[in-house]
């Protein structure tokens, strides 16, 4: 299994779990032409797109997915906020996900869970596939209520660090209101590290730090800090990156 990162920032988010035969799309916040290129224009192998919440950098191109006959999966709150109805907009292509209810999407098994963000009904996802094992996906949340068993790969938001954010406010680069909003809607470096350490990482192959802030993060320091805390292989998500060994084990 490969993880293809088509975007991981406020400019647009999209990730593909792709084994060349079947592909699960996570978020649809980048231009659809980029998705087409990433799967060599074989969009028929995209078995579905799961959307965490309705904000444009995560869901802007949902209508294009539907036009391309890609099934869309999200919470009722997210579907409502996007103006999409399972009964009105191609019933077979729009699916309401319920919290903690497992959804089978091709060979991917997806269990959504509630996250903490300024959106209608945001979800994170626990994703299982025989090749990549158990994958945790958590973005745009200032903390997680849950811990998870049997993880093999992790994509987790590491958006900002408090001292960098505070310095930017003091220097006038960021309005104080944005500081408050960031702290109540995104995951800090410290919370990311604490969340990772709260889980059993013994079988984890890859940790991918996603959705870093352009101005409130330091990618190299964040990566090194998580390596030191976990002892795991750590990547910082960048547009165009492919992690080829996104499997159950590194061997």
């Amino acid at each position: 299994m490969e993880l293809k990162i088509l975007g991981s920032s406020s400019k647009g988010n999209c990730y593909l779990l792709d084994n060349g035969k079947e592909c699960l799309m996570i978020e649809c916040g980048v231009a659809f032409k980029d998705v087409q290129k990433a799967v060599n224009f074989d969009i028929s192998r995209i078995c579905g797109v799961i959307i965490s919440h309705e904000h444009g950098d995560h869901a802007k191109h949902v209508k294009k997915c539907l036009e391309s006959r890609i099934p869309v999966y999200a919470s009722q709150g997210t579907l409502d906020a996007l103006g999409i109805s399972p009964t009105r907009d191609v019933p077979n292509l729009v699916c309401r996900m319920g919290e903690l209810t497992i959804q089978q999407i091709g060979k991917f098994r997806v269990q959504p869970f509630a996250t903490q963000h300024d959106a209608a009904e945001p979800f994170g996802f626990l994703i299982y596939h025989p090749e990549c094992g158990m994958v945790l996906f958590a973005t745009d949340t200032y903390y997680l209520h849950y811990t998870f068993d049997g993880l093999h790969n992790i994509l987790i938001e590491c958006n900002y660090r408090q001292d960098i954010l505070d310095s930017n406010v003091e220097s006038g680069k960021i309005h104080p209101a944005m500081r408050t909003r960031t702290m109540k809607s995104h995951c800090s470096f410290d919370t990311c590290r604490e969340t990772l350490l709260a889980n059993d990482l013994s079988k984890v192959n890859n940790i991918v730090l996603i959705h870093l802030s352009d101005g409130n993060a330091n990618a190299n320091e964040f990566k090194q800090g998580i390596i030191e805390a976990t002892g795991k292989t750590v990547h910082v998500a960048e547009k165009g990156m492919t992690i080829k060994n996104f499997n159950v084990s590194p061997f």
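The chain has one domain: 2-243. The longest strand covers residues 2-9.
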